[in-house]
Amino acid sequence: MTNRRTVLKSLVGVSALAAAGVSLPGIALADELETLKKNGVMRIAMSGAYPPFNFINEENQVVGFDPAIGEEIAKRMGLKVEIITTAWDGIIGGLLANKYDAIVGSMSITPDREKVVDFVGPYYRMRRGIFVTKDSKIKTLDDLKSATLGATLGETHEQWAREQGYKVRTYKGLPELMLELENGRVDAIVNDDIPVLLAITKNDAPIKQLDVKLGGVADEAGIAIRKGNPELHKAMQDALDAMQADGTYLELAKKWVGGDIR
């Protein structure tokens, strides 16, 4: 998931405030690990609209692979977790504004984002897929040139679709994307393939993946934290590495996604 406009806006704002000598809550002046341990809680953010990676269940709880990963990392650091859901297109801004301590929400690691945040991980791979209804006449990428392509606002897939010159309509998350496709309000959607394929199987949705080559692995997901926190970064990376080594990661991946996605 990326938003070049959001990242560039953040870069400009940060530079201007720093030049004016204004203290920035989102830029760490000292490593935050000690503060987190003192408080005993790590606040992690995600959209809550990206099943099976993060979503709100019938009990109004945020569950999925992302919160499970975040909770396990925090547990190994001796911390509890507070999960915060927020709109994806402003999620980096919220991190820089100290509204939470990390983003554990299937965020793609990109050069633009690495200018303003540091990443722990990666903790899983992503492949871009294009999906259409089973009765669609769209067969090739050329057919998309006259179509409307749905994407989640702020994701790397939105940026990719615009760079290809496609007509793009944006939405808040995957459930809305799939509903709009089924109802004919968009001709195709672009998204990471795993969550869509799982949703198709679970809901017996009349949707299929377009058999086209999009360049293999689109992105890798990382956990975003504020820059200037090497001790926090190391503690989180060590916890992630340990859970991958001892089999905990695979257990969580099988539970939520159906298999290993490293």
Automatic annotation (TrEMBL):
Any single Gene Ontology cellular-component annotation: membrane
Top-level taxonomic group: Bacteria
Gene Ontology molecular function: ligand-gated monoatomic ion channel activity
Pfam families: SBP_bac_3
Signal peptide (UniProt feature, chain positions): 1-30
Residue ranges annotated for the Ionotropic glutamate receptor C-terminal domain, each copy included: 42-259
Database matches in InterPro entries: Iontro_rcpt_C, Solute-binding_3/MltF_N, TAT_signal
Listed SUPFAM superfamilies: Periplasmic binding protein-like II
Keyword Transcription in record: no
Record has Signal as a keyword: yes
Residue ranges annotated for the Solute-binding protein family 3/N-terminal domain, each copy included: 41-260
Protein name: Amino acid ABC transporter substrate-binding protein
Species the sequence originates in: Thioclava indica
Phylogenetic classification of the source organism: Bacteria, Pseudomonadati, Pseudomonadota, Alphaproteobacteria, Rhodobacterales
